[in-house]
């Protein structure tokens, strides 16, 4: 009898703990969503991705838009803290994989974590594993890919990865209005914004030309146009302007 009472008491003690754990998780998720809403509505996509990376345990994030018209793979890097050379090396791999996928496979991949290994010749930051996770997200007619790197031997949570995919779409949706407003307000084309992003990453005209597959002179024309529209005189001033106005 005493043993049964002891078990009942233990059971009664455990139940509130389980409820508390569930409550803590819900509270934590609510706090996460509130933080994301605040930074996304302010147009800080990089801050949103940093929060999501922290939530899922990722050390590096890269959000890019797919080219759905010509199906050339990744079309535009939205935000990234990946090493530049790694992005450039992986781009061709992603383009090849995307072009081989059927439309049904592309649709089924939405919100589903997919794991791949970085190419053997790719240079990976110290302590980072060679496996990366990609999550496809659709926001309206736009399809995006979120790619995450993790520390070596990090244990991933499939549930959290799916949550991050959903929340990425949520952040992009919130920031879309701000982005469109910025585009109209500062009258910058997508190509000009791309060039602005890459000069903010410290890339030269030759490097940007290689990335975008257009000539160096065309890149310089885009950059000149950016500086004219933003009333800046140097690349450094253009970068500072872009940072102040959440354009990169």
UniProtKB/TrEMBL annotation:
<dbReference type="GO" id="GO:0003677">
    <property type="term" value="F:DNA binding"/>
</dbReference>
<keyword id="KW-0238">DNA-binding</keyword>
<dbReference type="InterPro" id="IPR016032">
    <property type="entry name" value="Sig_transdc_resp-reg_C-effctor"/>
</dbReference>
<dbReference type="GO" id="GO:0006355">
    <property type="term" value="P:regulation of DNA-templated transcription"/>
</dbReference>
<keyword id="KW-0805">Transcription regulation</keyword>
<dbReference type="InterPro" id="IPR000792">
    <property type="entry name" value="Tscrpt_reg_LuxR_C"/>
</dbReference>
<keyword id="KW-0804">Transcription</keyword>
<protein>
    <submittedName>
        <fullName>Helix-turn-helix transcriptional regulator</fullName>
    </submittedName>
</protein>
<dbReference type="Pfam" id="PF00196">
    <property type="entry name" value="GerE"/>
</dbReference>
<feature type="domain" description="HTH luxR-type">
    <location>
        <begin position="181"/>
        <end position="246"/>
    </location>
</feature>
<dbReference type="InterPro" id="IPR036388">
    <property type="entry name" value="WH-like_DNA-bd_sf"/>
</dbReference>
């Amino acid at each position: 009898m005493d043993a049964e009472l002891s078990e009942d008491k233990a059971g009664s003690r455990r139940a509130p703990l389980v409820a508390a754990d569930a409550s803590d998780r819900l509270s934590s998720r609510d706090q996460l969503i509130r933080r994301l809403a605040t930074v996304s509505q302010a147009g800080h996509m990089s801050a949103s991705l940093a929060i999501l990376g922290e939530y899922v345990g990722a050390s590096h994030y890269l959000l890019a838009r797919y080219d759905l018209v010509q199906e050339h793979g990744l079309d535009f890097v939205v935000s990234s803290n990946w090493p530049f050379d790694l992005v450039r090396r992986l781009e061709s791999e992603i383009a090849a994989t995307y072009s081989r996928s059927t439309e049904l496979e592309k649709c089924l991949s939405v919100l589903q974590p997919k794991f791949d290994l970085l190419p053997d010749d790719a240079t990976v930051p110290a302590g980072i594993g060679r496996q990366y996770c990609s999550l496809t997200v659709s926001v309206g007619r736009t399809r995006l890919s979120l790619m995450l790197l993790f520390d070596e031997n990090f244990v991933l949570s499939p549930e959290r990865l799916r949550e991050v995919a959903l929340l990425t779409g949520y952040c992009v949706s919130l920031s879309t209005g701000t982005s469109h407003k910025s585009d109209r307000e500062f009258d910058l084309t997508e190509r000009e914004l791309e060039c602005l992003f890459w000069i903010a990453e410290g890339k030269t005209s030759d490097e940007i030309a290689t990335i975008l597959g257009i000539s160096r002179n065309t890149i310089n024309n885009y950059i000149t146009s950016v500086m004219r529209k933003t009333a800046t005189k140097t690349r450094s001033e253009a970068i500072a302007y872009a940072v102040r106005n959440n354009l990169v």
